[in-house]
Amino acid sequence: MTTDWHCIEKVPVEVTPLTRVDSTEVHPLKQMTVTVLESKGTRNRKSSSSSAMGILDPLSQAFDGSDPLSQFARQASLEVDPLSQIAAEYELSASGVMKADSPLEEAIEPWSSRRSAILSKYTTAERLSIVTSFVSGNESIKAQTTMTEKVKHRLEQLDDFTDAAYHMQDVSQQEYVSRIEQLNLELVQAWNNDHRVTALKIAIQCSKLLADTSVMQFYPSQFVLITDILDIFGKLVYDRLKVKAGYIRPGSTNPAALPDNFTPDMVPEMAKETCLNWFYKIASIRELLPRFYVEAAILKCYSFLTSTEFNLALLRLTRIIRGIGDPLVSIYARCYLCRVGMTVTSDREYIKENLTDLFTVYHTMFSPRLKNELTRQRLEMPTYLSLYIPALDWIMQGMAVHTPEPVLDEILDKCLGQKNNGLLLNSVMASFSCNFLAKRATKLLRAIADNASAEDFPQAQLLRALGSCLVMATQVPDEKQQVWVEAMKLIGELKVPGQFILAIESWAEFTSSSYNLSHVAAILEDLLTHMGQNRVFEQHYAEMQVVVDKIVCNSKDLEGLLTLDNFMPVLDLFQKESVKMDVCRNIMMVYKDKIEGKTNDPVTTNALMYICRVLNDSVNALTVEDERRQIGGLISHMIKQVDFGRDFESQLAFYVDARAAFLNLDTVYATLIHCVNNLAMETRRMIRGQHSRKTAAFVRACAAYCFITIPSIVAVATRMDLYLVSGSVALQNLCLGQADSCLEAAIELIPELPAVVEVDGKLKSTENYLTGYIGSLLSTLIIVPDSPDRGVLFLLRLLLDKLKLYQFDEAHSQCEATLTNIYLSVLDMLSTAAQDSYPYHIPGIVSNDELYGSDPKFIHEIDGLSSKIADQILINLKILADKGQFKVQSNLALELFTRIVRGTDITRDKQFTLAVNLWNLVTKNKALLDGKALMGVLGIVEQTRKAHGNTVLGKRLEELVMRMRNKL
To answer: String of b and e for 459-472 (b: at least 16 CB within 10 Å)?
Structure first.
């Protein structure tokens, strides 16, 4: 037969109301008066615990002595509808009963954020042991004739652990953690199945595991895992008591659920008695450690009894810890007590007493017996002392928050008064206010200097901690220069490279942010001295990288830092390519973010070039595109920042050196080409377009630089863009030969342009790019004069030839539409080229309008070329119709019709007939077009007719208008 923990909870103990639970002198096993609820609604009767009650039937056990229907009714009455609950909570809030959680808990770093760090830091490869089973099955019960026997049996069950328990020996850390997680699930499962005794057994036996220090280096993680289970157990007990405590609002007869921030006067007596029973059961646990931990786990349940009990209970539990002999076990017990105490009260008297007790027993950490145990476990004293850090930091931080400086001074003096006080000093610097510590930096440095014992806390870690405090402090330390000198002296005396690099990290950050470059130079010199001997740096790349990164990030004069004598030698210590690349990349990222002004200092420029060369050399075939883009951007920014002012020749020489140094990145080459083009345009601006022999030679050198650099770029589209820009710049600087070469090279690349490119992981057609590019190219070709050696419109004819070789994307269904749009742009260009005067010119450049002067032969060439293009457009329109692209065909036909009307002589029958046929083609599918667009074209033709009046052209236009109206 299985029992129900309801029976244990619902045997209330009649006690005199307590103001302090720990002041009672009645032991739970002593005979006591009990109150039994009889069935059928009879009144309560009191009897001695020794009086006979008879054998309880299962229903009586399950329903607390009352009949089942009454029990169900009572439980149902506790279930409140949501609106009633909200209304009750609102009334409580309005009356000021509800209160916030302890502000002390909110003021410090939450335990949950420290939990993961502890589990990841304190690990072991040693074999562990753990109890693997606590119960042999379901809870059992035998017939009892009296209530005293019933209660006594429950207590015997709590004592009966070892009968059903056996141990797992030599388990790994992972197996240990898995078993703890399993126990966690077993506890919750047992609780949900109403096996309260089983759940309590698991909590008690888990607490016993915290006495095991056979593998000390794992103890902090062991503490975290076990207290997780205890926290869950405490929450289960608290939530159950809260559910069982029905609250009757003033003026109402219906019980409601307790609000989150209830007061003890809202809790009914039955719930209080149940809560007391829990504390009495825990008080009956014979072993000190599980009794302490389980009571601490349900400490919050005191809120059901009295609002003043927390402080007294915390002080009582603090004094219980004095019975724990092992200093490691005791300090984590204090940590747990402080952790749960912060959730229920803001009073810190118990924390202060824990800290006082800790100072009293601090010397036991260095006892000969403990040193023998460390020898057996092969642990060094610094490693052992590090096990105390999580617990001691938590206690110290809880005491330091919102504490006046005189009290902190008192605590600090007590820490300094201890022998081997390195651990305490480390905790003080991790917990106290940084400004408080900064004011006392000299005092702390002297204490650290006296703390050089081999068995004590590592001096380097103390120096690192103090440096970190000074970094975060907003106040300047007293005797700032003396503090730095003494700290550097202590750090310089550290002989072990690992200890030196540990200590120097925070001081390097503090020095670079608070002192001038001479102090930073001293840091770099010490770093070079300690890490450069016997290739020690090879074992400390990561630490050195952090030091250099912090110096660079916090330096107020980055350019000055780069020029220090020891900076580049320190950088050379990073002989592992991947690490050196990371360091250099971080330097350039900081340079990009912090440096806004230009530089022309040769030392700074050489340092930047060296760093960027390291980044460039790290790029290879396996480098991912994002990294290429990032490195290219950093180098490009550096190139833009180097400015020699009006010394254009030095500037061009720098660009030449940069081109030779950075061979692997298209982004950098593109930046260099743009910079050289800007240099040429700046030259033109300064001399106002009137080149001398010297400046003309210089701009030609710039054009030559661009022309020979562009082929090194891989991306075809980038090359095409750069050729077009460079050709335009050369043209504006009157370098006609260079301009022709650049534009011709751009046209020659059109067949090489891929049909599709990958953009953001997706394939995208290049047809839209090609259309826009050719439009820009044609606008430039208008003002480019024909070469006497190459015939009329040579570059345009070359463009049309190369365009035929472009391989369109086969998956694209409108390649004819793309070609037609390009041909329409060519017609626009030819129409402009036939004008007597072009709409724009470049000073000093004789364009074709001036070169040919509307010569009939030139116009004839334009007409012939226009006819060929128009014929090709008509062919494309027919292909579009064959493919069923009627809307596209009509739109393109309308565009051609507009150009025919506005740009040709429609008095000729051929042109007039072509215009009429195009309009018929457009209106054939006018349902697919925008009617406003058609009326707009009609309006343009009418305006053109009015402008020509009764001329022959005007009459022809009038006839065309009539035909257009008929089709509409």
So the answer is: bbbbbbbbbbbbbe
Please state, in angstroms and rounded to a whole number, the distance separating the CA atoms of residues 693 and 584: 43
pLDDT per residue as tens digits for the range 679-709: 999 999 999 888 899 999 999 999 999 999 9
The answer to whether 110 and 151 are in contact (CB under 8 A) is no
Contact partners, residue 857, CB within 8 Å, separation at least 6: 792
Distance CA 795, CA 776 (A): 14
How far apart CA 929 and CA 922 sit, in angstroms, is 9
Q: Which pLDDT does position 113 carry in this prediction?
A: 85
* pLDDT average, residue stretch 469-479: 90
Count Cα neighbours of 661 within 13 Å in the Cβ-side half-sphere.
22
Using CA atoms, how far apart are residues 310 and 19, in angstroms rounded to an integer?
A: 11
Determine the pLDDT at residue 155. 53
pLDDT digits (tens, 9 = 90+) for 818-866: 999 999 999 999 999 999 899 999 998 999 989 888 888 999 999 999 9
**pTM attached to this predicted model:** 0.74
* Mean pLDDT along residues 261-281: 85
CA proximity to 703, closest of 666, 658, 745, 641: 745
User: How far apart, in whole angstroms, are the C-alpha atoms of residue 819 and residue 814?
Assistant: 9
Distance CA 614, CA 796 (A): 45
Mean pLDDT of 495-523: 93
Task: Give CA–CA dist 258/284, Å, rounded.
Answer: 29
Helix axes 497-514, 480-492, angle to 10 degrees: 160
Residue showing tokens 């915390």: 314
Mean pLDDT of 228-232: 94
- Residue 34's DSSP bridge partners are 13, 47
Cα(116)–Cα(112) distance, rounded to whole angstroms?
7
| Closest to 777 measured CA to CA, from 811, 727, 839 | 727
- Three-state DSSP at 687 gives coil
The pLDDT-based confidence of 55 (bands split at 50, 70, 90) is very low
For residue 669, the model assigns a pLDDT of 96
Task: Give the contacts of 456 (CB within 8 A, at least 6 positions apart).
Answer: 381, 382, 385, 420, 422, 423
Q: Where are the beta strands (DSSP E) in 637-791?
A: 756-759, 762-765
Is 397's pLDDT higher than 80? yes
pLDDT in tens, 617-650: 999 888 898 999 999 999 999 999 999 999 999 9
CA-based end-to-end distance of the chain:
98
Within a 10 A sphere around the Cβ of 749, how many other Cβ atoms? Answer: 17
Q: What residue type is assigned to position 862 of the chain?
A: I
pLDDT band of 271, cuts 50, 70, 90: confident
296 with 202: CB under 8 angstroms?
Answer: no
Distance of CA 765 to the CA centre of its chain: 35
d(CA 776, CA 830): 14
Looking at per-residue confidence, does 192 or 45 come out higher? 192
How far lies 303's CA from each of 85, 272, 275, 563, in Å?
20, 10, 10, 66
In the predicted model, what is the mean pLDDT of the chain? 83
Question: Residue 959: which residues within 8 A CB-CB, separation 6 or more?
Answer: 912
b/e code 703-714 from CB counts within 10 Å (16+ = b): bebbbebbeebe
| Rounded-to-integer distance, Cα 96 and Cα 897, Å | 83
Cα 961 to Cα 173, 197, 854: the distances in Å are: 93, 102, 31
Q: How many CA atoms lie within 13 A of 200 on its CB side?
A: 26
Q: Which of 413, 470, 460 is nearest to 436 (CA)?
A: 470
**Average pLDDT rounded to a whole number, residues 53-67:** 39
10 Å Cβ neighbour count for 454?
8
Pairing of strands 128-133, 166-171: antiparallel
Distance CA 678, CA 692 (A): 19
In whole angstroms, give the CA distance from residue 941 to residue 457: 95
SS3 26: coil
